[in-house]
Amino acid sequence: IELEPCLVGEIYLVNGYMKNSESLSANSRIRSLRVAVECDDDNPFRTYGYCSDEDEVVELDDPEWTDVALDNFTGPAVRVFSMADMGAPADRIRIEVLDTYPGALYQDLCVSEIVIAGYDGEEIESWYSD
Predict the structure, then answer these.
(1) Three-state secondary structure along 52-78?
(2) Quick one: which of 4, 30, 109, 115 could link to 12 by a disulfide (CB 3.0–4.6 Å)?
């Protein structure tokens, strides 16, 4: 995932095809993944935090179906990356699937949502100007 330079605090995903319970079980889901938040040497946010130099391997439980809506989004979302303080300077996020839970009908892999929580330059500048 290519980003404008920013600080990434957390990354969440909703694993599987959460349309309904049949769709969830019919399609493959992520069992384990490797995630890396990468930054370039010229990233202006390097002064606020250090670039993450290690990939994180994350093991995920096989999800149960949950009706995903705006008012309950955090229920099925699983945190796959977290950085303390203001976050990690980022120019891109690399997610590599290492293993899957097989789908009952299909071999494809489904992820319903990826959420990147962090800060951009305007937000940080407003903290220091207040």
Answers:
(1) CCCCEEEECCCCCCCCCCHHHCCCCCE
(2) 115
Rounded CA gap, 19 and 113, in Å? 12
pLDDT tens track for 73-129? 667 889 999 987 778 999 999 999 999 999 999 999 999 999 999 887 666 656 555
Distance of alpha carbon 90 from alpha carbon 43, whole angstroms: 7
For 48, the 3-state DSSP assignment is coil
pLDDT tens sequence across 27-39:
999 999 999 999 9
User: What residues pair up with 58 in beta bridges, in sequence order?
Assistant: 33
pTM of the model: 0.87
Residue 49: pLDDT band (50, 70, 90) is confident
Q: DSSP per residue over 18-45, as a string?
A: TT-HHHHHHSBEEEEEEEEEE--TT-GG
Element (H, E) at 125: helix 121-129
CB 20, CB 110: distance < 8 Å: no
**d(C-alpha 8, C-alpha 68), whole Å:** 24
